[in-house]
Each structure stands twice: as C-alpha cells, then as structure tokens.
Design goal:
Layout (H helix, E strand, L loop, with lengths): L36 H4 L3 H6 L3 H4 L2 H4 L1 H8 L6 E5 L7 H8 L4 E6 L13 H6 L3 H9 L10 E5 L11 E7 L3 H5 L6 H12 E12 L19 H10 L3 E6 L29 H10 L4 E7 L3
C-alpha cells in the first residue's frame, strides 16, 4: 500500500510585503500509519544514508534533507530540476519521487553556452541534443522504484507541460542566467517558464550563492556567482510568484567574499587554489558558499 505522506508544514502563507524579511517555517516529520517495503525505498533519510561517502561528505554544506523538506518535496510529485548537470540532486530525487512521480531536467537555453567564452564549438553543438542525451544518461541513476525522467530547455518548454509540475527547483542555477540576462532575457525566460509549468499552488524553490547586502549591483550581477536576495525575490515576484519564506539552512557566515573574489574560489572548485596548499587550506576552512534558500508559490 502506498503511503500518503502528510506534511504538517503545509501551512498557508501569503506573499510577504517586505521581501527582505525572513519568515520562520516549521516542518514536521512525515506522519504515516505503516511502512511497507516499497514506501521505505522512497524514504529520503534512507536514500541519503545510502549515498557514497563523497556525496555524504557534502551534506554539511548542502543539507539536502532539510532543503527538500523545506520545499515540501514528497513522493509522487512531478519536479522540474534546473541545470541538473551530473545529477547530484537528481540521484536523490529519482528514488525519493518514486515510480508515481516524475523528474524533468531543465537546461539553459542553447544561446547561453557560447556566451561563456570557454566552451569549444564541438561542445556547444553537443548541447543541442541535451534534452535527449541527459535523460538517456540519467537512466543509469534509476532504480526499480525510481521516477521516470525527461528533459526540457528553458525557452522551448512544450505547451503540454504547462500546469503539470508540483515544484521547480533552481539549485545554484540562477547566477549565469542573471549574468547574461541583458544578452537574451535568459533569467526572465527561465522564471516565466517555471511559472507556466507549475500547477496553481505549485512551489518554486531557490538555493543560490548569496551576495552580501553591501555589494554593489554590478558586483552581484551573477558573473561572480553571487546574487542579492532582494534581486532574486524581485525577479520571482515580477513573474507572478508569491514569496513564501526563506531559510538559513544553507547559510555559511564564513563566506565573506571580497571585491575581487568569485564563488568558485571555494570548494569544490577551489579555483586558483588547487596548486597553492596554503590557500587551499584557507578556502577549505571556509567551506562551500553562503547560500540563500527561498520558497515561492504560484498563486491558486
């Protein structure tokens, strides 16, 4: 028998009139009357415990259990994951969503890739078939009771996806869209697509490198990996989303970037520090970036 997981945290929130204000959301443990074997395979705690050591070592910075619970992700949902890449979160979502759920990977618009300046023409061309290549590769991550997987490209979302998703997750995925917004409206396009594919009442979850409030807008444009909380909230609200709540679960007060710093100086990238043991030690002591965690809702 499939378990209906009830979240006592399904409180009714209204849009926040002061976007910068943090609301407190209490999330209760899922309640159930029994634990059949099949349902146990969807247990997020069990899925997390079964991951390789290298993945579990990053929980201290990524807090996947707390993050997915904050966004209200439960088995049976249809979830769109922006920029899933090598599948760090996908490998957790596929078994957690279960056979009755669905995971849809969403990639940048193809026109973004040449703007980075470091990708070869061959690699850029390969990205044209990402919406078929990525799901094919993701099949290797699926177990017996995992969600089916498909893909879309922001800016080319099929109309039949509109109103079908329970949640869209932008996990460290907004900064490059913002960085190149002026060259193609990529951030606006992605957020609008997220709004359209969601069901009324659906959730958009954001985890994003958090720029200091004191930073200039130019510094926090996304080119350094960081965005301001006020900017993200304003962009989401402009698309029609209601701001529900924020959380400090992925915050790291040790990350205090200077004027010349980029987020990739920190682990896991360690840009500019890999060949400098002293600097590497310093960056590792800071840990991964300070991240905002924001929850939005498509109005009913």
């Amino acid at each position: 028998m499939r378990i209906l997981i009830l979240l006592a945290a399904a409180l009714t929130f209204t849009a926040c009139s002061q976007p910068e204000e943090t609301q407190t959301q209490t999330i209760a443990e899922p309640q159930a009357t029994s634990m059949p074997e099949q349902a146990a395979t969807n247990s997020l705690a069990a899925i997390l415990a079964a991951q390789p050591d290298a993945v579990r070592a990053r929980y201290v910075y990524r807090h996947p259990e707390e993050t997915l619970n904050f966004f209200g992700i439960v088995p049976g949902m249809t979830v769109v994951e922006a920029l899933p890449g090598g599948g760090w979160y996908s490998k957790l979502l596929l078994p957690h969503l279960g056979a009755e759920g669905q995971l849809i990977g969403a990639n940048y618009p193809h026109a973004v890739w040449p703007l980075f300046g470091f990708m070869s023409a061959e690699r850029i061309e390969q990205m044209r078939t990402w919406t078929t290549d990525w799901p094919a590769g993701a099949q290797e991550w699926r177990g017996e009771n995992s969600a089916p997987v498909s893909a879309m490209e922001f800016g080319k979302a099929a109309e039949n996806l509109n109103g079908t998703a329970d949640a869209v997750l932008f996990i460290r995925a907004l900064h490059n869209l913002a960085r190149f917004e002026g060259q193609g409206g990529f951030l606006t396009t992605a957020i609008n697509d997220a709004y359209n594919v969601l069901k009324p009442g659906g959730i958009a979850g954001v985890v994003q490198h958090h720029a200091p409030d004191s930073a200039t807008d130019e510094w926090a444009s996304g080119s350094r990996g960081y965005l301001k909380k006020s900017f993200v909230i304003a962009q989401m609200q402009a698309a029609g989303f209601e701001f529900v709540a924020s959380s400090d679960i992925n915050a790291n007060s040790k990350d205090q970037p200077g004027a010349d710093d980029v987020v990739w100086r920190l682990p896991p990238s360690l840009r500019g520090a890999k060949d400098d043991p002293e600097l590497s030690t310093k960056m590792l002591a800071i840990g991964e970036s300070n991240r905002m965690t924001l929850k939005f809702r498509k109005p009913l």
